[in-house]
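step: validate -> pass
step: tokenize input -> pass
step: predict -> running
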Amino acid sequence: MPITEYLVNNAKNFKDDVALVEINPEVEEKSRMTWREYSLIEPGNTNSVRKEMTWGEFDKKANRFCNLLLSRGIKKGDRVAILLMNSLEWLPVYFGILKAGALAVPLNYRYTAEEIKYCLKLSDSSVLVFGPEFIGRVEEICDRIPDVKYTFYVGEDCPTFSESYDELVTYCSTKAPDITLSDDDDAAVYFSSGTTGFPKAILHAHRSLVHAAKTEQAHHSQTKEDVFLCIPPLYHTGAKMHWFGSLVVGGKAVILKGTKPQWIIKTASDEKCSIIWLLVPWAQDILDAIERKDIDLSKYELSQWRLMHIGAQPVPPSLIKRWLSVFPHHEYDTNYGLSESIGPGCVHLGVENVHKVGAIGKAGYGWDVKIVNEKGEIVEKGDVGELAVKGPGVMTCYYKDEKATNDVLRDGWLFTGDMAREDEDGFIFLVDRKKDVIISGGENLYPVQIEDFLRKHSSIKDVAVIGLPDARLGEIATAIIEVKDGENLTEEDINDFCYDLPRYKRPRKVIFASVPRNPTGKIEKPKLREMYCGESVVAKQNEIK
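step: predict -> pass
step: emit ->
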């Protein structure tokens, strides 16, 4: 069945139940509060920062937008791009597109005007839905995107070069159109995160989306009573596919527009959230805020919070041990996935395997995995090789890029580009990205291993390890270290701390600076290479792609 059937069923069975809640602490102009004033509001009192939508309203909004698209001649197979910040409108827009038989094309809200133009052209999008944060960027390119027939603006004060979504959908029918969809129909075009180059367009069918929903619910046992707190951007497969677990059971989800620790804890308490997916930096910030006593946990009701899980990046074991010492009643899970495998879940740790923290886990629900060498042969346990996955959530292709598709899809297997090893118990440990491996004096160095070691230092907030060109060794391991506020570190301190590392793994250069991460929490290593490593290393990375 298509993913839209879940929404239809929820609207029928849970019409008046709350489906989505939006919490927006950054409403200083509307609520006359700063974020700090908001964080000090007594739990339970949210005033104007809160909006909600029932399942019945959700379905009607999706139908209205679907009918607007159909009235403009949008037909099955057309592409409709979404450029919105997280909001109550995001998911109804997404499902309205799917109900029309069109393909949803979510865009990264950090894209520049030229990147937006590139992605619209690559995906063959004929409609763009955008919000107030993007007026300038869209206006800059609106005369240079001739294939985009319509732009719909979501928000107040519609710019003259666009049409108002809010006004137009008011006059559209709330009745679902008679459009037949199947598992095999194309559903969405997502874009790779760009951590290894310019984003590729990833085509998925409804089958992929449905399998993501089933996988998420199978892994985390969502029930109707669970409340999911959604913080990451909805344009990314990770956030949306985790929410799909709530979609399956008709559970409530809370969209929090902000990542400050006080906001997360307060929202979890006020909305009785039971499942929260965090990125590594957010979890670290929460623990730091608790240690600094910026957050007094005794003021909040958090007994219902049963599961904290993390994905999108390697997770330092020290972080989870620290987390469970503060929240000992929490279940914990690590989720691994790619946009090419429709987000998280193709590998997951499992809440029953907390003793294996550090591993990404085993094959997820409905998935197969293997670790292979350069010849495609399965490696021995303990040896490092490339991780490959196979299952119903694998992408159809890289849209309009046959060569790139053939490079990663072979006999139904998706070759992830991630280097991994399997231990004696069958648990998979991520070693590093294939493209990020540093070859220093003939030795392969895996940056994630060095990063995990350095994160154990109590004064280090974040760290990234990259290769720096070296005339003698080819490359040397270079650590970019972000120090916690109020702490001081020197290169000598780091060298002393790394004494327990094998000599060849120790960073040969240390740079104290901030560590850039994209909205899904991944370290932006291409940006770091460009900043610190010079054009030669960037060129080398491009050759490997």
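step: describe -> Residues 437-544 form a domain with the GMP Synthetase; Chain A, domain 3 fold (CATH 3.30.300.30).
step: cleanup -> pass
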